Amino acid sequence: VAAPSSLTCRRPRVMVPVNPDPSAQLPAFSSLSLGHGAAEGRRPQEPYSFSRPGTTSPSPVFDGTRQVTAAPTVTAGAAERHGILHTVAATVWFGPRDPVVSILLLASIFDGLSGNPVDALLLFAAGAALGRERALREGREVGPSRMAAHEEASPRPGPRGLITVGRLPLLTPILLAGALIYGVIVGGFERFSWPMTLAVAGPGALALAVAWRGSLGPQRELPTADSGGAGPWGLAFAAFGLWEFTNLILQPSWSIGSYDHPTLSLLSDPLLSIHSGRSTGLFLWLALGWYLAKR
Amino acid sequence: MTSRQFSVAVYVVIALAGVALQLLSLGRQSRIPSLGTVLSRVMASRSGRVGIMAGWMWLGLHFFGR
User: What is the pTM of this model?
Assistant: First the structure.
């Protein structure tokens, strides 16, 4: 968040009351006279509010000397106007600030280059939705909402979603039975065919929508974890991703596999070329998705 | 060792490293969290949750879809 003084220096200053609410002025000025920081040029915590670029809020901006300007208006929050162009622009602009958005957008580009339009489209949609949400969050007033934005980015029990598994004890066995039937039926489809693609993209898109709402698992305390202790896991996943990418770029082309430098999908070809192998793979994939949806 | 065997060996080593980390996390005094704990932490934010689920969806489409 930019310092308030940097926001105000570009605009002509106008003298207005620090707090436009007359009933709140007395305590506000009382706090100044008691030396709570504002008189020395420090930013008081309340009741002032700060506006971020992109807001259209008329809230005044405190610059440390009780001289206040109108809030600057830039177009970063324009994504709220729901235009596709605004969403794309907000994603491109705010995406690099969120590593997840960057990863999703990069993955969608490489998937598109590899001739996988459905993967690319869904990954881009997920990245764009996150980028747009980030743009809206950054475009809102900072102040009380700044705390909300901080909470959103901080580890905490996720927003609980549509249903809670704990209240439906039979749900898990029913869904596992459904996954088994799904695996047997969809496993009969030819690999990389459109019926198979639609049969996989459907649950995938549904799971993404559910994930947006929150976890399906019961509310529980987040386990405390040493952030340094998670480093080895990060290294293992990074090593896998780099090795997969290395083998990918050593292929003759993006869409033609290499025998000498096989990717994991190429190595799995013998298993997934038979019906029972595809059924097993689809069942495990759905079970993994259910496990993740409950985290 | 051929290039193919080396490629496969690297995948196996990474997989074994994952198994070893999970086993190490079971110790009471271990500083290494389990994979489930790491996932819970990552998925506590909407960004992390959607990112992980997008990765799962990509796995399915990558191996089965077009």
Answer: 0.66
CB contact under 8 A, B56 and A194: no
> What angle (nearest 5°) sits at the alpha carbon of residue A128, between those of residues A123 and A131?
125
User: Smallest Cα–Cα separation from B56: which of A207, A155, A283?
Assistant: A207
d(C-alpha A292, C-alpha A167), whole Å = 18
Using the beta-carbon criterion (under 8 Å), do B56 and A156 form an inter-chain contact? no
Contact A260, B7 (CB under 8 A): yes
Separation of alpha carbons B21 and A240, rounded Å? 14
Q: Is B20 on the interface with A (CB under 8 A)?
A: no
So what's the ipTM on this one?
0.90
**CA–CA min distance A284, chain B (Å):** 10
Structure tokens at A270: 């013998």
What's the pLDDT score for residue A288? Answer: 93
> CB distance A236–B65 less than 8 Å?
no
Q: Both tokens of residue A130?
A: 């996150």
pLDDT tens per residue, range A189-242: 999 899 999 999 999 999 999 888 887 776 666 666 566 678 889 899 999 999
Is there a contact between B56 and A212 if contact means CB atoms under 8 Å apart?
Answer: no
Contacts for A198 with CB less than 8 Å, ≥ 6 apart: none
Please name the residue of chain A whose CA is at the shortest distance from the CA of residue B2.
A260
Burial class (CB in 10 A: 0-12, 13-18, 19+), A90: buried
